Structure formats: C-alpha cells, structure tokens
Design the sequence.
C-alpha cells in the first residue's frame, strides 16, 4: 500500500462559528493508494478524539499500525488498490495540525488556553480548504466513527453535493448529558492538576512524566468506551496476583488495565488538545443553525449509512436510530440505511470489531 504523509499550510483565514478567526493554519494528512483517471475513487476518512491522520499502514520502526489498519489497505474492506483514501489530522489535535500548542502569530507565543473553541463545522471547513487546494471537489465517500462520525454527518448536511456516500459509525446527531458527564471528569481533573499550570506547562516534561489529571480523564473515558459485558469477559473478578487482597491499594485486573491505559496516555497525547477536543464534542449539534434536526437532515443529498453497536455505552444505538427515523419521516428512507452491529464490546467496537461490519461497508462502497 502506497502511504504518503504531508503537511499543508494556509495563510487564508478561517472564520469560526464562535466569531473568532484563525488567520493561518496547518493540516497534516496521510493518503493511501492512488487517484484514478476519473477522480471518482476518493474516500475521506475522519478520526475520533485521540485519533490522528495515521489511519492505516506502518511507519518504519512502528510498533503499531494505524488506528483503522484492519479496515483500510490493499485487498482489505476499503481496498486501497481500488480507492484513494485521505485522512486529515483535525485542527485542534496534537499530531501536527494547528492546535493550542501552536504559536499564535498575533503574540508569537503558544495559544494555550487562548486557542479558540472549535466546532465540528470549523474542523470540516478547514478540511475542505485542504481538499480544495488538492483540487478535490467531490468524493465517493466520507467514513468516520465517534467524533469522526460527527464530521461525516457535518459533511452530509453542510456540503450536500460533495460526497456520494456518508458512513457514520458509533456516533450521534448531538451530544447527550451522559457523554458530557464522562468528559467533565477529565476536564476537571486536568484543570485542577497543579502541574497543568493553567496551560503553561512544559510539553517535554509532560511527555516524559505524564499528567495525572489527563490520566484520570482517560480512565473515565475508557470506562465509557467499553461495556459491562466486555469488562466482565476480559477481567472477571480476578485480582492482581502480586497485590494483597487486604492491601488498601491492592488492585483488581480491571484497575490495573485502566491504570496502564490512563497513565500512558499523556505520554502520547496533549492535555490542552484533550480539553479543546472534548469541548468540541460536547457542543456538537447537527441542527445548529437550523430550527430543528429534521430541517438540518433534510439538506442531505448523499446516501447516508448509519452503523450503531448494540453494546455502545457512550453513543447508544437509539441515538443513531433517531437519525434514521427522522430521515424516514421526511421521505428520505430510500437514501438511508441503518444497521445495528451485534456487539458486547462497547463504544470502541467500531475500531476493534471491524470483521463484523467491514464486508457490509465494502458492499455499499462497491454497489
């Protein structure tokens, strides 16, 4: 599979939904495969909260492949011998695109907490500027899960003629209080960590030693990404062998798992980016700017494919069913599909259990 990683810089401003302006910005992106002669084989891949532009393949010396490598690649479900895929790192993220860690040209200092709050629409607007610079005016599909699914829905509503297919997995039309409550744990833990220093921390020190507040937030996140069934199956009530049962801080295996994932996360992800991305997800509402969700969804011209996962405890299946029901109610049932994937894994099933839905996506793409 041909993998190319690039960085694009723009001096044209983005006028944000908040009223603020990003006068210049960078986007890091990665491509897989080749554009065909007719330029009708292009697929946009959108990523989730902690994802990046590195969706598939391996860099030299990589321990792990890209986050959706089991879906994207030569002769895989999204076949890069047939399709040209492009995945862009969201602005606000910490993997090379403009973010709170970037230098504000107005002050020549790091944005920090003065970085603008972004919406999903702002992120997609920046992506469209990159795609326009690449002379990509329409695509075969946009595919994303979780926060990436929010972006896919945004493409469908705000750029209705841009994509033939929209695939939104494990996502929602607007973020509910349940998800916002989980995010609140992480936001409060980061803000109240003394080493956060109101966003003025040393990034190298955090990458070396971590940040307890972000670790706590990631632990809360991991609980919402799994499900009671998957936890019971994976860990049972097993106790860590070398921890005493009657030691106050002795641990069950599930606790050790959460500690491992939580306390390693800040070594690879930035606290400021985490805060801003979580805020973006919290305020997502596909109906913003319209009188109702029905009015917003009525703008969709693409074939909209909705996939939920039965064990998802973050964005519940009924949230995806609501979108399908509205599309049916407004007479767009012929351009909408809905499938609930039987899974006990939890929210992260869209990343982990690709074999349960990959063939379904392949068939819809190839129809």
Sequence:
């Amino acid at each position: 599979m041909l993998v190319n990683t690039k960085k694009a810089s723009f001096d044209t401003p983005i006028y944000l939904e908040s009223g603020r302006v990003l006068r210049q910005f960078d986007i890091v992106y990665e491509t897989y495969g080749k554009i065909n002669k007719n330029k009708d084989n292009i697929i946009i891949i959108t990523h989730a909260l902690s994802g990046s532009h590195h969706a598939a393949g391996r860099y030299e010396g990589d321990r792990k492949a890209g986050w959706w490598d089991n879906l994207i690649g030569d002769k895989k479900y999204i076949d890069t011998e047939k399709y040209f895929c492009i995945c862009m790192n969201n602005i606000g993220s910490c993997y090379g695109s403009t973010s709170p860690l970037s230098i504000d040209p107005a002050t020549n200092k790091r944005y920090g907490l003065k970085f603008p709050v972004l919406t999903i629409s702002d992120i997609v607007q920046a992506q469209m500027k990159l795609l326009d610079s690449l002379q990509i005016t329409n695509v075969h599909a946009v595919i994303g899960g979780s926060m990436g699914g929010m972006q896919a829905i945004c493409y469908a509503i705000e750029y209705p003629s841009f994509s033939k297919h929209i695939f939104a997995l494990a996502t929602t039309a607007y973020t509910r209080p349940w998800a916002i409550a989980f995010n609140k744990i992480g936001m409060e833990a980061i803000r109240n960590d003394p080493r956060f220093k109101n966003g003025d921390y040393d990034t190298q020190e955090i990458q070396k030693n971590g940040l307890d507040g972000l670790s706590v937030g990631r632990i809360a996140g991991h609980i919402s990404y799994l499900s009671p069934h998957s936890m019971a199956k994976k860990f049972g009530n097993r106790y860590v062998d070398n921890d005493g049962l009657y030691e106050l801080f002795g641990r069950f295996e599930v606790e050790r798992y959460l500690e491992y994932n939580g306390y390693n996360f800040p070594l690879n992800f930035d606290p400021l980016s985490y805060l801003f991305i979580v805020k973006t997800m919290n305020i997502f509402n596909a109906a913003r700017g319209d009188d109702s969700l029905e009015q917003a969804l009525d703008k969709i011209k693409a074939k909209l494919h909705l996939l939920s996962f039965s064990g998802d405890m973050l964005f519940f299946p009924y949230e995806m069913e609501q979108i399908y029901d509205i599309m049916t109610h407004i007479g767009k049932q012929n351009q909408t599909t809905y499938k609930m994937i039987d899974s006990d894994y939890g929210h992260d099933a869209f990343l982990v259990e690709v074999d349960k839905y990959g063939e379904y996506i392949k068939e819809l793409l190839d129809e």
Summary: The longest helix spans residues 177-191. The chain has two domains: 3-175+284-366, 179-279. Residues 72 and 78 are 5 Å apart (CA to CA). The first strand starts at residue 3 and ends at 10.
